[in-house]
């Protein structure tokens, strides 16, 4: 596109100083972005391996993002601030302490950013249903961000995808926004005020127009789960490979291309997850340190 502005969108890096399982893909991504810096990097959450229990994972992830050759903005994921309520997955959940830790270490959990003709509005989707005072503050922020951005194209970003295929669909596990939480955005979607929705979380990439609004799913940079569909059904019709999404905006137009650079490692954590619960993930991500493992900057607990 003529006079296009380059933006790169990444998600789900799951970084950790003490448990650097996925650091290689991050190093390759930093190299790639330094070779051809975009104007902006948008990050869609789960920057940390297990930030809910280990703030150092968040501190490390923040330091890694600061290596990027351009400005970046992140919306938190469930592995950064805890899962949204009501939790049906057995995860650590969002609370005042986790939210404040995230804000202290990483920065704002909701924000808007104007670039070209576009306004990107980042939303903390884990706040929805929390009952924390910040949930109402975010609602008011969103209202203001949309009304003052009425002359712009608006894209909303959140870790968990808004829905699978319809705005009024029933919950599918806890993979998407719960129906009650969708009320936050529905008035603006129904009024045609949102031009694009961007999300991560599923570790699957997909582009699908839902009720007239394109929904862009950003792939994970760290791992996929059951790439070969041996045991986890292909429920969402996304693509289970690691990668990143290169966007361009020009005036009111946009385009996006998800790329899977050949140097990235497609780690499949099926072995961790096959038991059907998150407990195995927690074993790998949550119990530390490794016996005999030290890393510069790691403090043994
Ligand atoms: Fe993730």
From TrEMBL:
<protein>
    <submittedName>
        <fullName>Calcineurin-like phosphoesterase</fullName>
    </submittedName>
</protein>
<feature type="domain" description="Calcineurin-like phosphoesterase">
    <location>
        <begin position="7"/>
        <end position="204"/>
    </location>
</feature>
<dbReference type="InterPro" id="IPR051918">
    <property type="entry name" value="STPP_CPPED1"/>
</dbReference>
<dbReference type="Pfam" id="PF00149">
    <property type="entry name" value="Metallophos"/>
</dbReference>
<dbReference type="GO" id="GO:0016787">
    <property type="term" value="F:hydrolase activity"/>
</dbReference>
<dbReference type="InterPro" id="IPR029052">
    <property type="entry name" value="Metallo-depent_PP-like"/>
</dbReference>
<dbReference type="InterPro" id="IPR004843">
    <property type="entry name" value="Calcineurin-like_PHP"/>
</dbReference>
